[in-house]
Design brief:
Helix content: 40-55%
Distance between the termini: 46 Å
Number of helices: 14
CATH class of the largest domain: Alpha Beta
Radius of gyration: 21 Å
Number of strands: 14
Largest sheet: 7 strands, mixed
Order of helices and strands: HEHHEHEHEEEHEHEHEHEHHHEHEEEH
CATH superfamily of the largest domain: Type I PLP-dependent aspartate aminotransferase-like (Major domain)
Strand order of the largest sheet: 2-10-9-8-7-3-4
Mean pLDDT: 96
Strand content: 5-15%
CATH architecture of the largest domain: 3-Layer(aba) Sandwich
Structural class: alpha/beta
Low-confidence stretches: none
Shape: globular
Number of domains: 2
């Protein structure tokens, strides 16, 4: 069934984090902003999901539930059918969110003061998780050349071999710069981390959001040539526009790791299941292929529109074309703003709520992240406001 991604469903959005006045006021100092910051979508979910949730609600029974074998098999079948990636359904573990999973794994496999490698500019929650656990942030900054980000492998080798470095937290595809790591890049990461006994946690929450000709390759597949010392975390929330509904899943081929993570989940009682999350996951992974493919086409259209608009109307601003995710990483450096000036410009002149680049760590100064998973009309409005603001300088 075709989906109208141009639709902007009428609903009360006051309690959505992205639109919540209190959050906007706290972060940006104003409430009346066009919000392109929080990484969720403005699209109505696929009809099959609404139907399945309605049918589940009509049953009127909401006792404690487990993750059923059918749910786990649907999830595993999704990865096999779309990516030729084999996950043993019996090996899947679940927690309330990807960030919860990452925190639990780091807590289980490292001691306070030990190092966790990240590759900034990267999803800012990574830094918060590492700091809150009393672990050490070890930066392996990406390099930006020719409007494309690359991994500095020599630097990665250097920090990986330091005695206190225990984990690499890989963002794949990368948020916010939009890189979809190629097989050769993933293989070099795997070789370095295996050589220096560094555990890899690979956050693949954006794995389904990849634009042709690029292809998502699960790090589990690449890593199998080297070792089984790897843990994948992901979620259906980004893919199917339901982060407020579903939880995350964890998979590792390493039985000892599986046992340790399961123990950690039980220790903090993170395995309580939700009836609606369960039916949502099973439905999405069973019937979501066509809906996802349509959304990817629409998102590509948004990217093309923004690229054309900026080239014609605001050539000073550009962005590395994303290979994956529904974020674009806008480069405002030619405007010559400091970080504080850029924030003030975007809020007060352009009326836009974007994530400030410096919050993503080294390499983020002068950039801002924009979520483009919105109807085209809203994207056009945002671009028009930005153009008006730039012309006023």
């Amino acid at each position: 069934m075709p989906v109208n991604f141009d639709e902007y469903p009428e609903t009360d959005r006051q309690n959505f984090v992205r639109y919540n006045p209190a959050f906007l006021k706290a972060v940006f100092g104003q409430e009346e902003l066009l919000p392109f910051w929080v990484a969720d979508t403005d699209f109505r979910v696929m009809p099959e999901l609404v139907q399945a949730l309605s049918a589940r609600a009509a049953k009127g029974l909401f006792g404690y539930e487990t993750k059923s074998p059918r749910l786990k098999e649907a999830l595993a079948a999704w990865y096999l059918r779309r990516y030729n990636l084999q996950l043993n359904p019996r090996g899947l573990l679940f927690t309330p969110s990807v960030n919860t999973s990452i925190a639990a794994i780091i807590d289980a496999f490292t001691a306070p003061g030990e190092g966790v490698i990240i590759q900034p500019p990267v999803y800012q929650a990574f830094m918060g998780i590492i700091k809150s656990l009393g672990r050490k942030i070890v930066n392996n900054p990406l390099t930006f050349a020719g409007n494309r980000y690359e991994i500095d492998f020599d630097h990665l080798e250097g920090v990986a071999k330091e005695p206190g470095t225990k984990i690499l937290l890989l963002c794949s595809p990368h948020n916010p710069v939009g890189r979809v790591w190629q097989e050769e890049e993933l293989a070099r990461i795997a070789a370095i981390c295996t050589r220096h006994n560094v555990l890899v946690i690979t956050d693949e929450i954006h794995g389904d959001i990849v634009y042709p000709p690029h292809q998502y390759l699960g790090m589990l597949t690449v890593y199998a040539r080297y070792s089984d010392t790897i843990i994948m975390v992901s979620s259906a929330g980004k893919t199917f526009g339901m982060p407020g509904l579903v939880d995350s899943f964890v998979f590792t081929p390493n039985r000892a790791y599986h046992k340790a993570i399961k123990k950690q989940i039980e220790r903090y009682h993170l395995d309580k299941s939700n009836a609606f999350a369960n039916i949502a996951l099973q439905t999405a992974f069973t019937a979501g292929d066509a809906w996802l493919d349509e959304m990817l086409t629409y998102l590509q259209g948004n990217i093309n529109y923004i690229a054309s608009y900026l080239a014609a109307e605001i050539p000073a601003i550009r962005f590395p074309v994303p290979e994956g995710t529904y974020q674009i990483w806008l480069d405002f450096r030619p405007l010559g703003f400091s970080n504080d000036e850029l924030q003030k410009f975007l809020v007060e002149k352009a009326g836009l709520a974007l994530n400030q680049g410096y919050t993503y760590g080294p390499g983020g100064d002068g950039f801002a992240r924009m979520n483009i998973a919105s109807p085209r009309k809203m994207i056009r409005q945002g671009m028009a406001q930005l153009a008006t603001a730039v012309r006023s300088l």
